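Work Package 4 report. The design task specified in the project plan requires that, given a folded chain encoded as C-alpha coordinates, an amino acid be chosen for each position. We show below one input record used in the internal validation round.
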Protein backbone atom coordinates (compact mmCIF):
# COMPACT_ATOMS: atom_id res chain seq x y z
CA UNK A 1 0.00 0.00 0.00
CA UNK A 2 1.44 3.34 -1.07
CA UNK A 3 1.54 6.17 1.42
CA UNK A 4 0.13 9.44 0.04
CA UNK A 5 2.85 11.49 1.73
CA UNK A 6 5.51 9.35 0.06
CA UNK A 7 3.95 10.04 -3.34
CA UNK A 8 3.83 13.80 -2.68
CA UNK A 9 7.43 13.74 -1.44
CA UNK A 10 8.59 12.00 -4.64
CA UNK A 11 6.62 14.44 -6.77
CA UNK A 12 8.11 17.39 -4.91
CA UNK A 13 11.63 15.99 -5.31
CA UNK A 14 11.05 15.35 -9.00
CA UNK A 15 9.76 18.90 -9.52
CA UNK A 16 12.73 20.35 -7.62
CA UNK A 17 15.17 18.35 -9.73
CA UNK A 18 13.38 19.38 -12.91
CA UNK A 19 13.35 23.06 -12.07
CA UNK A 20 16.94 22.90 -10.87
CA UNK A 21 18.06 21.20 -14.08
CA UNK A 22 16.20 23.70 -16.25
CA UNK A 23 17.69 26.66 -14.39
CA UNK A 24 21.22 25.20 -14.55
CA UNK A 25 20.82 24.61 -18.28
CA UNK A 26 19.50 28.15 -18.78
CA UNK A 27 22.34 29.72 -16.79
CA UNK A 28 24.92 27.62 -18.64
CA UNK A 29 23.36 28.55 -21.97
CA UNK A 30 23.80 32.24 -21.13
CA UNK A 31 27.46 31.56 -20.29
CA UNK A 32 28.21 29.84 -23.60
CA UNK A 33 26.05 32.09 -25.77
CA UNK A 34 28.83 34.65 -26.50
CA UNK A 35 30.94 31.85 -28.00
CA UNK A 36 28.20 31.10 -30.51
CA UNK A 37 26.74 34.53 -31.24
CA UNK A 38 28.54 37.89 -31.19
CA UNK A 39 26.76 39.39 -28.19
CA UNK A 40 28.10 41.04 -25.06
CA UNK A 41 29.76 38.66 -22.64
CA UNK A 42 29.03 40.78 -19.57
CA UNK A 43 25.36 41.07 -20.50
CA UNK A 44 24.92 37.31 -20.85
CA UNK A 45 26.85 36.67 -17.63
CA UNK A 46 24.48 38.96 -15.77
CA UNK A 47 21.53 37.14 -17.34
CA UNK A 48 22.97 33.82 -16.21
CA UNK A 49 23.03 35.06 -12.64
CA UNK A 50 19.29 35.78 -12.77
CA UNK A 51 18.68 32.03 -13.01
CA UNK A 52 20.06 31.85 -9.48
CA UNK A 53 17.46 34.40 -8.38
CA UNK A 54 14.71 32.26 -9.89
CA UNK A 55 16.17 29.19 -8.18
CA UNK A 56 16.12 31.00 -4.85
CA UNK A 57 12.40 31.64 -5.11
CA UNK A 58 11.49 28.23 -6.52
CA UNK A 59 13.92 25.92 -4.73
CA UNK A 60 14.97 27.93 -1.68
CA UNK A 61 18.37 29.03 -0.49
CA UNK A 62 20.06 25.63 -0.75
CA UNK A 63 18.62 25.01 -4.18
CA UNK A 64 19.93 28.33 -5.47
CA UNK A 65 23.41 27.50 -4.19
CA UNK A 66 23.23 24.12 -5.94
CA UNK A 67 22.16 25.78 -9.20
CA UNK A 68 25.04 28.24 -8.84
CA UNK A 69 27.61 25.48 -8.17
CA UNK A 70 26.32 23.18 -10.91
CA UNK A 71 26.47 26.02 -13.43
CA UNK A 72 30.02 26.83 -12.35
CA UNK A 73 31.08 23.19 -12.75
CA UNK A 74 29.53 23.00 -16.22
CA UNK A 75 31.28 26.24 -17.14
CA UNK A 76 34.61 24.53 -16.42
CA UNK A 77 33.79 22.19 -19.31
CA UNK A 78 32.75 25.00 -21.60
CA UNK A 79 33.54 28.00 -21.89
CA UNK A 80 36.64 27.19 -19.80
CA UNK A 81 38.43 27.73 -16.54
CA UNK A 82 38.86 31.51 -16.69
CA UNK A 83 35.23 32.27 -17.45
CA UNK A 84 34.06 29.64 -14.98
CA UNK A 85 36.05 31.38 -12.25
CA UNK A 86 34.63 34.73 -13.37
CA UNK A 87 31.18 33.23 -12.95
CA UNK A 88 31.88 31.45 -9.65
CA UNK A 89 33.68 34.38 -8.04
CA UNK A 90 31.75 37.15 -9.75
CA UNK A 91 28.33 37.28 -11.31
CA UNK A 92 27.20 33.93 -9.96
CA UNK A 93 28.13 34.85 -6.41
CA UNK A 94 26.54 38.30 -6.62
CA UNK A 95 22.82 37.31 -6.45
CA UNK A 96 23.47 34.77 -3.69
CA UNK A 97 25.21 37.42 -1.64
CA UNK A 98 22.38 39.90 -2.21
CA UNK A 99 19.64 37.38 -1.42
CA UNK A 100 21.36 36.13 1.73
CA UNK A 101 22.24 39.56 3.15
CA UNK A 102 19.25 41.72 2.28
CA UNK A 103 17.11 40.56 5.21
CA UNK A 104 20.00 40.86 7.65
CA UNK A 105 21.36 44.35 6.90
CA UNK A 106 20.00 47.67 5.70
CA UNK A 107 19.91 48.47 1.99
CA UNK A 108 22.76 50.98 2.28
CA UNK A 109 24.92 48.47 4.16
CA UNK A 110 24.06 45.80 1.61
CA UNK A 111 25.18 48.00 -1.27
CA UNK A 112 28.42 48.91 0.50
CA UNK A 113 29.17 45.27 1.33
CA UNK A 114 28.40 44.11 -2.21
CA UNK A 115 30.53 46.85 -3.79
CA UNK A 116 33.43 46.14 -1.40
CA UNK A 117 33.37 42.36 -1.81
CA UNK A 118 32.92 42.41 -5.59
CA UNK A 119 35.64 45.06 -6.03
CA UNK A 120 38.01 43.00 -3.89
CA UNK A 121 37.26 39.95 -6.01
CA UNK A 122 37.81 41.99 -9.20
CA UNK A 123 41.18 43.25 -7.96
CA UNK A 124 42.14 39.69 -7.00
CA UNK A 125 41.18 38.43 -10.45
CA UNK A 126 43.19 41.24 -12.08
CA UNK A 127 46.28 40.31 -10.10
CA UNK A 128 45.73 36.59 -10.65
CA UNK A 129 45.05 36.64 -14.39
CA UNK A 130 46.39 40.00 -15.49
CA UNK A 131 44.56 43.07 -16.63
CA UNK A 132 45.30 42.41 -20.32
CA UNK A 133 43.64 39.01 -20.28
CA UNK A 134 40.51 40.15 -18.46
CA UNK A 135 39.93 43.40 -20.33
CA UNK A 136 41.02 42.76 -23.91
CA UNK A 137 38.56 45.24 -25.40
CA UNK A 138 39.62 48.12 -23.17
CA UNK A 139 43.15 48.49 -24.52
CA UNK A 140 42.35 52.06 -25.62
CA UNK A 141 43.39 53.02 -22.08
CA UNK A 142 47.02 52.89 -20.98
CA UNK A 143 47.91 49.82 -18.95
CA UNK A 144 48.57 51.88 -15.87
CA UNK A 145 45.11 53.43 -15.93
CA UNK A 146 43.31 50.29 -17.08
CA UNK A 147 42.90 48.91 -13.56
CA UNK A 148 41.38 52.16 -12.29
CA UNK A 149 39.06 52.46 -15.30
CA UNK A 150 38.01 48.81 -14.91
CA UNK A 151 37.23 49.30 -11.21
CA UNK A 152 35.21 52.46 -11.87
CA UNK A 153 33.25 50.85 -14.71
CA UNK A 154 32.67 47.83 -12.49
CA UNK A 155 31.02 50.06 -9.88
CA UNK A 156 28.61 51.31 -12.54
CA UNK A 157 27.89 47.71 -13.60
CA UNK A 158 27.06 46.77 -10.00
CA UNK A 159 24.65 49.71 -9.68
CA UNK A 160 22.96 48.68 -12.94
CA UNK A 161 22.89 45.07 -11.74
CA UNK A 162 21.04 46.07 -8.56
CA UNK A 163 18.42 47.79 -10.72
CA UNK A 164 18.03 44.82 -13.10
CA UNK A 165 18.03 42.40 -10.16
CA UNK A 166 15.14 44.26 -8.49
CA UNK A 167 13.15 44.51 -11.73
CA UNK A 168 13.63 40.83 -12.52
CA UNK A 169 12.75 39.75 -8.99
CA UNK A 170 9.55 41.81 -8.97
CA UNK A 171 8.55 40.43 -12.38
CA UNK A 172 9.36 36.91 -11.29
CA UNK A 173 7.45 37.14 -8.01
CA UNK A 174 4.38 38.81 -9.55
CA UNK A 175 4.05 36.98 -12.86
CA UNK A 176 6.16 33.86 -13.19
CA UNK A 177 6.14 32.30 -9.71
CA UNK A 178 2.33 32.36 -9.35
CA UNK A 179 2.07 30.67 -12.75
CA UNK A 180 4.56 27.98 -11.68
CA UNK A 181 2.73 27.38 -8.40
CA UNK A 182 -0.66 27.16 -10.12
CA UNK A 183 0.59 24.49 -12.50
CA UNK A 184 2.25 22.29 -9.89
Amino acid sequence: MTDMNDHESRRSTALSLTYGGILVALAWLFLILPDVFPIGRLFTYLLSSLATVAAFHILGSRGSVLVYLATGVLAFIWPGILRSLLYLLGVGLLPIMILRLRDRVSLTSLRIIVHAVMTTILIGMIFLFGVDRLFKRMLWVSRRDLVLVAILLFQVVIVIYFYVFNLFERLFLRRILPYIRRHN
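The chain has a mean pLDDT of 88. Validation will be extended to a larger panel in the next phase.
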